[in-house]
Amino acid sequence: MDPRRALEELAQRRRNRKLFNDYAKPYDHSKPYGPDNVGAYQWQIEFHNAGAKFAERCLMAANQVGKTLCGGAETAIHLTGEYPPWWQGRRFDSPVKWWTGAERTEDSKDLIQAELLGAQGEEGTGWIPKSRLVNGPIARPACPRWWIRFT
């Protein structure tokens, strides 16, 4: 295989495994940010782990600090059943039905769907890995339905 093509293939596979690559371990603040040091921040881990005790939680934080990322990752984790090693929050042992929504239709499409699935036409580059997208989208205006493979 051509080395350039092999690198492109590797990059595409990495984009299709965001959940496993970017959230499998906690972020290490003692090391510089980089491809080998990405992960959940401590406050995100505490939020996720609080799910073991509390059915409802509120994530209130400043702009651009990782709230959408945190919510998207947790949704994908529950939908796929792929819990990271550090996870102490609630676990589902069978597939779940899940709805997401926003105040405005545009936000559902532009924010939530993009976070979970990836950009339109690049499904599988969001938090839900491409290998887990079984069937979709079943089109409805601004409300596509997807089937996700659970572990």
Task: Tell me about this structure.
- The protein has 151 residues and is mainly alpha-helical.
- It is built from five helices and two strands; from the N terminus they run H-H-H-H-H-E-E.
- Strands 1-2 form a two-stranded antiparallel ribbon.
- This is Terminase large subunit gp17-like C-terminal domain-containing protein.
Instruction: Tell me the major beta sheet.
Output: 2 strands, antiparallel
First CA to last CA: what distance?
32 Å
What is the overall shape? globular
The proportion of strand residues reads 5-15%
Helix content: 25-40%
List the helices and strands and how they pair.
Blueprint: H1 3-15, H2 18-22, H3 42-49, H4 67-80, H5 105-117, E1 133-138, E2 145-148
Antiparallel strand pairs: 1-2
Helix pairs in contact: 4-5
Descriptors:
single chain, 151 residues, mainly alpha, 2 strands
Task: Give a quick summary of the entry.
The protein is built from 5 helices and 2 strands. The protein is mainly α and 151 residues long.
